Amino acid sequence: MHRGYRLLWRLLVLPMLGWLWWRGRKEPGYRRRVGHRLGFIHPAPESSGCLLIHAASAGEMQATLPLVQALRTVWPDHALVVSTQTPTGAQTLHAQWNGAIQHVYLPFDTPGATARFLDRLQPRLLILTERELWPELLLQCRRRAIPVVLLNARLSEHSQRSYQRWHALMDPVWSQLACVCATDTASLERYRSLGVPAQRLVLAGNLKFDAPLPEHASPPPPWADGATVVVAGSTHEFEEEQLLPAWKGFSARHPDALLILVPRHPQRFEAVARRLDELGLAYARHSRGETPGGAIRILLGDSMGELVRWYRLATACFIGGTLAPIGGHNALEAMALGKPVLFGPHTENFQNLYEEIERSGAGLRIGSAEALFARVQHWAEAPAERARSGQAAQDLVLRHQGATRRHLNAIRPLWHVSGEAHRTRIVQQVVGPQTLWHDPALLDSVEPATFEPPAPDDASAHRLATGSGRGQAHLIQAGGHALVLRHYRRGGWVARLSPDKYTRTRVANSRAMREYALLRLMRSWNLPVPQPVAARHWSHGWLYSADILVAMIPDTRNVAQMLSQERLPAQAWRQLGSAIRQLHDRQVFHADLNCHNLLLDGSGQAWIVDFDKCALRPGDLWKQDNLARLLRSLRKELRRLPVFHWHEADWEQLLQGYNAPEPRPA
Fold first, then answer.
1. What order do you get walking across the sheet with 179-182 strand by strand?
2. Which of 60, 130, 136, 515 is catalytic?
3. How far apart are CA 304 and CA 91, in angstroms?
4. CB atoms within 10 A of CB 1
5. Is 333 one of the catalytic residues?
6. pLDDT (tens digit, 9 = 90+) per residue, 456-514?
7. What is the DSSP string of 111-159?
8. Strand pairing of 316-319 and 341-343?
9. What is the DSSP string of 331-386?
């Protein structure tokens, strides 16, 4: 099934690119950053290890804003990245924080685009909202051991049946989701029936209830003061075809009334204006700075992000997508302002919410445009009843707040951060063919000379013991810190052709930068690894060379050194086993796990170093092979060296530490 899905998406790529170009005629945002749709994003280096929050469009983005704001109290802005699929979603994000949060477009759901996207961004956690479940994206996350959560999750019966029909494609997704925060009990039970493990389901409520209540507004403009104002928000064509003829009759009886019409999609603004002209209805266009007055009793709200402004002026609010068979849009913005709401029969997208609105008296379900204006007339004539409905609407919103806190509590265990490690910055500078990264908290600046090892005749030169020779490590002093400088070298027969040059690749994907990013991520998990300080990528045409600087771990020796002098106590072996298990618990695959890359300090604490070509890896099958590699290295040294104080019984002590129940030493 998944192969067929991949084939379908590959066939759709060119038509989808053409559609974006066509859509861009009216919305230029669709023609911008088209490369993102194919995974060609260019995130800042310090975004590596970020939280990636996906909200498809403006509505989902608006609902996610309280969560992003709450995350900003825990995470620095550079560690948060938001993806959307539409320019309106991007505009909503930009309007809120003016570019402080990095934005990217989610790619098409093809293997190449999603893999490229994830490899360039390297998020530590993917946060999806509502129903944004893309099978290929999730498969690529599984392959990279990136946990995925679904927040503000709602699921209708219709969507549940659709997922069940495509169970061969979707079944792996349900067991993959690390957490599902459902908006209501019915959605939670539907996700459970699809196969999400019960222990990963949380009833967290709807994030939309936590949108901040609008601050006190200025007095209404003169053209709205004292008028009966009907706001029709997020409307669709079918609804406008019903509302506008009915408005003619209503406005004839109530010549002082005003209609503020706000279409759901910006690309329809011109079409709605033309329809008003065809019907002979006088109107003002907000985008042109026009205002109603005199015989002009309709305002076309043809601008983005101002629906709340119009709801403030309303006597009553109609929620679009409910007379048309769309399923309904968000009523909470109007309700938070204390406005009673009117809506049609099609509320499947928010069924529980609209049922509660009816029960609490916060609004009314109507069957036609005529019934809508009849209720508006009734409320205009009975202001006390309208005020009670408005108060009930606001009380309902306040009653359900707290979803943001519940969502955060549910996902907090998944990001595994310790102290301030996740806040570290990466400063990038380009010096000719060299690209340099460094942590400004440890070094004020770096330059190419920082990565040059001491000359052999330098009295201060100190070459560190390493394994069989692929990495040349030197102890240097920089910025008042003792640092380990390692120049990347090839091993095996390839080294005879090119000892320290590698095939050209993206800077962020080069050996040093990938190890730097992985170390930075592991440090945020409080794993026993060195702190990355700086890295260099040096381009040589079609080749490159690489260097990395890490903080020296004081008073340490590697296990191979120690065993050449003495036998290690059982506790030391257990400490080593525990350190390896900590890496494995975080799915960190060490490509060259051997006794030269295991260290013990003076207090007996175990450390692991040299993470070249290492990565996060899903599953558990590889972990025993990783241990077997270490065992082979010990046996190899035992055969190779005349004195090597290791015995097979020591391995049992290491396994005891590896298999010891938590908590393990951090």
1. 102-105, 80-84, 51-54, 125-129, 148-153, 179-182, 201-203
2. 60
3. 9
4. 12
5. no
6. 666 555 667 554 444 568 999 888 889 999 999 887 777 778 889 999 999 999 999 99
7. HHHHHHHHHHH--SEEEEETT---HHHHHHHHHTT--EEEEEE---HHH
8. parallel
9. -HHHHHTT--EEE-S--GGGHHHHHHHHHHTSEEE-SSHHHHHHHHHHHHH-HHHH
